[in-house]
Amino acid sequence: MTDIGLDDDAGQDTLTPFPGFSFFVSFTTSPAAFGNLPGRVTGGFSEVTGLEATMEPKVIKEGGRNYGPVQRPGPVSFSTVVLKRGVVRARHLWAWWAMFAGSDDAKNGVWGPIARTNVDIILFAPVQSGTGVTPTPVLGWTLVNAMPVKFRAPDLNARGGEVAIEEIHLVHEGLNTAKVS
After folding, report:
1. Helix (DSSP H) and strand (DSSP E) numbers for the chain
2. The whole model's pTM is what?
3. How many Å from the N-terminal Cα to the C-terminal Cα in the chain?
4. I need a surface site. Which of 89, 109, 171, 179 has the fewest CB within 10 A?
């Protein structure tokens, strides 16, 4: 389990998601991925898909065992996680994507393993308290060593109230539960 430490990172009230958003997303910063930012890059997204892990069992056929083969654990694979319609206060997700993709004159080859980051995705639920309804973290997931593989900006429309990020797709090397507190 990862303790995500829902404390005040860089002046942000992390216990209050952005209005209209139910998921708080936190990217662990590292100098290679996000420059010299303290703490975390945080934001809210209205939809998160792809939190999935699949294990392919190993089938072992034994002689004399006629009632089915023996099943053993096999390799685990992870789906691409898609964060949709998000607002992120820091503008570093594009730079992180550019580092891997080579856009904005980013030099390919500077994206080594140290540019990957852990991503915490926390689900909030409204909880009635003495002072009213408070968004409370109830469930969390950590994507281990995440890397962006697709970035989609919203359509530009002067009449619309579009979000800052339409979609960002992340691949990762592990899916863990995060301790929410």
Report:
1. 2, 12
2. 0.75
3. 12
4. 109
